[in-house]
Amino acid sequence: MASPRRIGEFVKGRVLIIAGSDPSGGAGIQADIKTVTMLGGYAATAITALTVQNTRGVSEVHPVAPNVIAAQIEAVMSDIGADAIKIGMIGDVETASIIESALKKYSSVPVILDPVLIATSGDALASDGVAAFIRDRLAPLAALITPNIDEAAALTGAVITGRESMRDSGKALIGFGTGAALVKGGHLTGETVEDALVTPEGSRIFSNPRIDTTSTHGTGCTLASAVATGLAQGMTLQVAVKRAIDYVHKAIVTAPGYGAGHGPLNHGHPLD
To answer: Rounded to an integer, what distance in angstroms lies between the CA atom of residue 130 and that of residue 152?
Structure first.
């Protein structure tokens, strides 16, 4: 049997995930843990809400008490620590305020902020005021924010129709104080899916062939957690984003086809 020291050599990059739970396993905390683990990192969590959902939609959302969320974050950070923090579903402004306080306490840890406002099914996952709080209070604390075009439009007020408007919305998000923005174009049409990484130094477009599939549940959660893992492992932002996009693309291509709605990805596919 290998010693604990030997086992630990295969795990690099501690990621604290602050997000909601998806019992169907396709999105949220469950997708995040699978992603971080598959990419060789160590996942810890602070659960913000218990959802009742599957591939067909979200039927119930039960927020976790803010003091319990704060206690989960402190339990992880005071013991195991983190090399990156990934934020997903927040739910309400009270929870967002608790998270803001935690991020300020651990300001040296890079934050990847996935502004979860609407589920893949179209169901709302955030109450009134959360988008504004993310824009004004959390984005300035983040190294990277990863909205899809609908979320970017909600945060910036922009109408996004293609790569130039994706770049413009990314620049607007940087103007709010975030370190960089990855604006995801999967909700646009066309044979190619383009994602725009915008930094203060410029922008880069990542392109992949569009896959004709309904297996897209949890793509945003998965991508943000994959980027967080890369940063936790010491990768540059460009390299972490490229690996994350490639990982998600293959996870969609090899999806198992479960469920009657928007199915889950294959988080366990080989990396090569």
So the answer is: 13
Residues 6+ apart with CB under 8 A from 115: 131, 134, 145, 146, 147, 151, 154, 155
Catalytic residue, from 26, 91, 218, 263: name it: 218
Q: What's the pLDDT tens digit per position in 5-39? A: 455 567 999 999 999 999 999 999 999 999 999 99
CB 207 within 8 A of CB 166: no
User: What confidence score (pLDDT) does residue 123 get?
Assistant: 64
Q: Is 219 a catalytic residue?
A: yes
Assess whether 221 carries a catalytic annotation: yes
Centre a 10 Å sphere on the Cβ of residue 59 and count the other Cβ atoms it contains: 10
Token readout for 148 is 């899809």
34, 86, 171, 184: which one is catalytic? 184
The model carries a pTM of 0.94
